[in-house]
């Protein structure tokens, strides 16, 4: 089957929909208000239940059948909600092969890959089910409050990097943020499309156009973006603490980056087609949230940031008791990349009681997840997790006196 990515033909200055490919009323116009790939998208002002159809010739070509690689379609129908409104549509790809372990259901397209619970990549992709599990969860009370302040302080120390808050440091930070294609902010929203933040979403594009699309979109890697967010967060926090003159400008740089990240689809309920290996790419952004908690709270964004983080780390997985062996699938990825972000979610909860319940649930999850080894296992009496940069050290003490130290170093 040959690929055909019809629909939008775009450059940085022009964009159009091929009229032969679009069946819609006159409420569709190409506009520069929004854009994911390039500077334009199709703005559809729809009536309740309106239908927009985009189609292309099937262009069938006989080829040897390969299991899982036979998906193809020559048209897409967008059916609007039962209310009037506006949708922006960008980068429609038809007639293309897609790896079966990439498509991700989310709140926009919940019907995608209904068999995801059985997929090898479930630990990355089953975010909607994890979110449902979290909503239905009632975590048992923890035994006492513990050292909440100490746990938060350890996480904050691990998340904070060095920062230069001098005038020269501010000038360099502004240059670095601009280089990432972060648009200015007005009324808490980005002004213009900005760069395409790519956390492997490009994997669902046909290989023959992938590089060109990423060039057109001025793509930046999600991990590089998050790393810069963490650096700006550290500068913002340090400048605030020192009462530096540049404090407000570092704050604005961070809020610009946060607004653009959400605008690009890294927000609760969205998976953007695929979200695989999100743990290796989102953890620096997660660190930044904790570092600038006061700033996000002042801007009315703290709870949103925690909701976004809970969505992408699949916090609802803490309800799993590992009675189903399938829950061990990808557990090394989870241990390696998601334990710390889940701990940030826990200390970011609204009340001390919720924080303790979540931390206790995370402890139980960690204990159970460590019982996957066929060579060594024990009835854990104590589990201590130590965070040091990109390394997670887990010390396990068993009730029979045996012990084991496990060290996991981030990769990717």
Structure explained in plain terms:
The protein is α+β, with helices and mostly antiparallel strands and 412 residues long. It has 2 domains: 8-97, Galactose-binding lectin (Jelly Rolls, Sandwich), CATH 2.60.120; 131-373, Chondroitin AC/alginate lyase (Glycosyltransferase), CATH 1.50.10. It contains 13 helices and 15 strands. The strands form 6 sheets. The chain has a 3-stranded antiparallel β-sheet, with no helix packed on it. Helix 4 (167-179) runs parallel beside helix 7 (247-263), helix 6 packs antiparallel against helix 7 and helix 6 (222-242) packs parallel to helix 8. The radius of gyration is 23 Å and the shape is globular. 37% of the residues are buried.
Helix content: 25-40%
State the order of secondary-structure elements, H for helix, E for strand. EEEEEEEEHHHHEEEHEHHHHHHHHEEE
What number is the mean pLDDT? 83
User: Which class of secondary structure composition applies to the elements?
Assistant: alpha+beta
What CATH architecture of the largest domain would you give?
Alpha/alpha barrel
Strand segment tally: 15
Total discrete domains:
2
Count helical runs: 13
Give the CATH topology of the largest domain.
Glycosyltransferase
Q: What does the main sheet amount to?
A: 3 strands, antiparallel
The coarse overall form would be globular
CATH superfamily of the largest domain: Chondroitin AC/alginate lyase
Q: Distance between termini?
A: 32 Å
Assembly type of the chains comes to single chain
Strand content: 15-25%
Low-confidence stretches: 1-21
Strand order of the largest sheet: 3-6-7
Radius of gyration equals 23 Å
Name of the level-1 CATH class of the largest domain: Mainly Alpha
